[in-house]
Amino acid sequence: MSWGVKHLIKKGLVILIGSVFIALGINLFLIPYKVLDGGIIGIALILNYLWGLKPGLMIILFSIPVFIIAWFNYREYFYNSLHGMIISSFLIDILQPLVGFIHIEAIYSSILGGVFVGAGIGLMLRFKTSTGGTDLVAQLLSVKTGVNVGILIFIIDSIVVLCGGLLLSVDTLLLSIITIFFVGVTTSFITRKVTIS
Predict the structure, then answer these.
(1) What stretches of the chain adopt beta strand conformation (E)?
(2) Are 35 and 29 in contact (CB under 8 A)?
(3) How many CA atoms does the CB half-sphere of 164 hold within 13 Å?
(4) Of the candidates 104, 105, 134, 148, which lies 20 to 30 Å from 67 by C-alpha distance?
(5) Which range is most confident: 75-79, 102-106, 133-137?
(6) What pTM value is reported for the model?
(7) String of b and e for 158-194 (b: at least 16 CB within 10 Å)?
(8) How far apart are CA 19 and CA 87, in angstroms?
């Protein structure tokens, strides 16, 4: 088996594992307490909490403008992130029956949700792929500014969570701040130092 084929299989597995982490984090730990992640996932969750719309499908729809920009300006990022976005969105909706499967205190649920989502995003970014959306935007900004991608994700996520907190509740806002903090910390930890090529 050639190096290229091995690398492709490895990358495919990382996208799948990362997507499973994200889907589990959202369904097991965030949705039961109406907690938000940031970025496009956060927007999708707001729509789910308000109107019951499928979060995975909403992620795909809201990712379209970002992928159009990537297609014209950063073709490599477009190809590297398309699979991650589609697979993670698909798994988020497929694993929705797991909502309510685990019962723990809201604060611990927020922390674990952040760690799971951050681990999924970090794994993908380490292999030069992502779920697209604002993760893709953060990745592009990181290349241009040199600022750690986890910090940029944290800033974008904070804006979405603030809006979501205003629309939903103070509890949602506070728990979501905890979640995005742990998403940012976990992503930064996993993407630190060398990137595996």
Answers:
(1) none
(2) yes
(3) 31
(4) 148
(5) 102-106
(6) 0.88
(7) bebbeebbeebeeebbbbbbbbbbbbbbbbbebbeee
(8) 6
